[in-house]
């Protein structure tokens, strides 16, 4: 259940009550694709750096170790030793982005595994069953991720199919939650708004899926090549037509500046691989912008990555040491930078929530964007 605590213009501050705890929103979900954050970060680390929600991937976990294995191990929470909320995406994005050969039909999608090439079928019911086996807190509906750009004719047909798939997801989720032996029989379902960069199609789809009384609603198919201005325009167009008493999730976004802009437009949930991926390559976020820790100027720099940062990395290690670790190809380099970047994102969300609570979000946003000077 979503409880709106405060709203000013479109900016929302809320609480989302789930079977695995209450999520304070706006929130950034830390992406652990295969039930682990890439960069040797454990579930215990996630608690230390302020993570509220962990996100795992249906497609990847279905391929390995297999969702049946996870179910037999007691579900994803037990398997990865994480007692806070978990969101699993439906696998739709990976099917459309990773599978080289795929066939989209009304029943679902036939595709080849990117690992060993074996033929796999996934449709709405299969995605729900996999996510039910994983036992996540929140399951995402199975949708078609539309290539960008796409013709208006194709987008209309695709969105209609995504709506039909969503109806099937809801029926199957209700059935699975009613069965004895289901890992999490209170699993929640979020629907996904699609429509490419066509505002009117997006709005009509939002109106349609809003009638289904789902647990939450996502805006999908963005951050896939369109400009930031296009993305912000679509968010502004769609959010007013989604239920205001349910959480709104912007999928796969993004940069800290994107998050601030989307919060201003009414978004509650975010996720992105960017902070962990950047960290693994030595690109770290700071209060004054993003830096590349491998630059020569940090060779003798005994400062932490970011002065005043409370993350475990900045409390104990210098830029010079972390740069040395990267140059020496030590795994610890990746771990320290991923920890820092995820802490940066989780702390950013905490500051955003405090700013909304204190009625100074607009000033906070402008201050941050100015401090980052376009580098983040």
Automatic annotation (TrEMBL):
The active site is at 89 (proton acceptor), 271 (nucleophile). InterPro entries: ArchSynthase1/Queuine_TRR (IPR050076), TGT (IPR004803), TGT-like_sf (IPR036511), tRNA_ribo_trans-like (IPR002616). Residues 11-372 form the tRNA-guanine(15) transglycosylase-like domain. It catalyses: 7-aminomethyl-7-carbaguanine + guanosine(34) in tRNA = 7-aminomethyl-7-carbaguanosine(34) in tRNA + guanine. The keyword Membrane does not apply. GO terms for biological process: tRNA queuosine(34) biosynthetic process. GO terms for molecular function: metal ion binding; tRNA-guanosine(34) queuine transglycosylase activity. It comes from the Bacteria. The keyword Aminoacyl-tRNA synthetase does not apply. Substrate binds at residues 89-93, 143, 194, 221. Zn(2+) binds at residues 309, 311, 314, 340. Pfam families: TGT. Pathway: tRNA modification; tRNA-queuosine biosynthesis. Keywords: Glycosyltransferase, Metal-binding, Queuosine biosynthesis, Transferase, tRNA processing, Zinc. Gene3D superfamilies: Queuine tRNA-ribosyltransferase-like. Binds 1 zinc ion per subunit. One of its GO terms (cellular component) is cytosol. Residues 252-258, 276-280 are annotated as: RNA binding. It is an enzyme of class 2 (transferase). PANTHER family: QUEUINE TRNA-RIBOSYLTRANSFERASE (PTHR46499). Catalyzes the base-exchange of a guanine (G) residue with the queuine precursor 7-aminomethyl-7-deazaguanine (PreQ1) at position 34 (anticodon wobble position) in tRNAs with GU(N) anticodons (tRNA-Asp, -Asn, -His and -Tyr). Catalysis occurs through a double-displacement mechanism. The nucleophile active site attacks the C1' of nucleotide 34 to detach the guanine base from the RNA, forming a covalent enzyme-RNA intermediate. The proton acceptor active site deprotonates the incoming PreQ1, allowing a nucleophilic attack on the C1' of the ribose to form the product. Homodimer. Within each dimer, one monomer is responsible for RNA recognition and catalysis, while the other monomer binds to the replacement base PreQ1. Belongs to the queuine tRNA-ribosyltransferase family. This is Queuine tRNA-ribosyltransferase. It comes from Clostridium amylolyticum. The gene is tgt.
